[in-house]
Amino acid sequence: MPTPITFTFGDNRALCDQLLALIRAGKKTATCGALAYFTEGGEDMPVVGRQDIALDWDGNPALKIETIEVTIRRFCDVDEDFALAEGEDDTLEGWRRAHQAYFTRNGGFTPEMELVCERFRLVEDLKGAK
């Protein structure tokens, strides 16, 4: 089995808290990041079957998730099904606006940028685990 990694969702406390809550509620079953984060930024690529630990903003274990699918696609090619699986908006257009703002804040955005698109399942809620 692949070695698990730890990571934090989002780029600020409020977003991290919101995304963890969406996963706990069963509304968020997908996430994405710029391919450059993984190739140039040194982040570990998601691996199907790997169970990773999502941390809260303070670095405490919050959730254990298992990657069930990984695809690479351009931002402009993300479809409504994937966008809605991210659980952050109820329209593809809303997903595009929010993610364009996120990527602009975090290194740049182009409609043709490649994304690592990951689907996952919640394995365990670690809230309160030490």
As a whole number of angstroms, the C-alpha radius of gyration is 14 Å
CATH architect. name = Roll
- Going by CATH, the homologous superfamily would be Sulfate adenylyltransferase
- State the CATH class: Alpha Beta
CATH topology: Sulfate adenylyltransferase
Q: Into which percent range does the helicity of residues fall?
A: 25-40%
Annotation field: number of helices: 4
Pfam family, one: ASCH
Protein name: ASCH domain-containing protein
InterPro entries: ASCH_domain, DUF984, PUA-like_sf
Describe this structure as you would to a colleague.
This protein is of the alpha+beta class and 130 residues long. The chain has a single domain, classed as Sulfate adenylyltransferase. The chain has four helices and five strands; from the N terminus they run E-H-E-H-E-E-H-H-E. It has helices at 13-24, 35-39, 80-85, 92-105, and strands spanning 6-8, 30-34, 51-55, 61-74, 114-125. The protein has a five-stranded mixed beta sheet.
Brief digest:
This protein has helices at residues 13-24, 35-39, 80-85, 92-105, and strands spanning 6-8, 30-34, 51-55, 61-74, 114-125. It has 4 helices and 5 strands; from the N terminus they run E-H-E-H-E-E-H-H-E.
